[in-house]
Amino acid sequence: MRLAPIVGFLVVMWALIMLGSYILLKLVSPIELPQGSFASSALKAVIAFALVIAWIEILVQIKNVYIRRKLV
Amino acid sequence: MSFLFAPIISAIAFFVVYFVCPPLIRYLKNHGMTVNDVFKRDKNQVPRPGGIVIIVAIVAAELTLFFATMNYAILAILSTTIIAFFIGFVDDKRVMPGFFKPGMLVAAALPIILLGTYDFYLDFPLFGSAKIPLLYIALIFIAISIAGNTINSIDVLNGAASGFVAIASVPLIITLFLQNKIDIAVAALPLLLTALAFYSYHKYPSRIFPGDSGTVAWGAMYGAIAIVGGIEVVATVALLPAIMNSFLYFVNVKRVATEHRKVKRAAMLSDNHDLIVASKENDVPPTLVRLILANGPMHERDIAKSIFKLAGFSAGLAILTAILVGISL
Question: Hey, are the CB atoms on A22 and B280 less than 8 Å from each other?
Answer without folding.
Answer: no
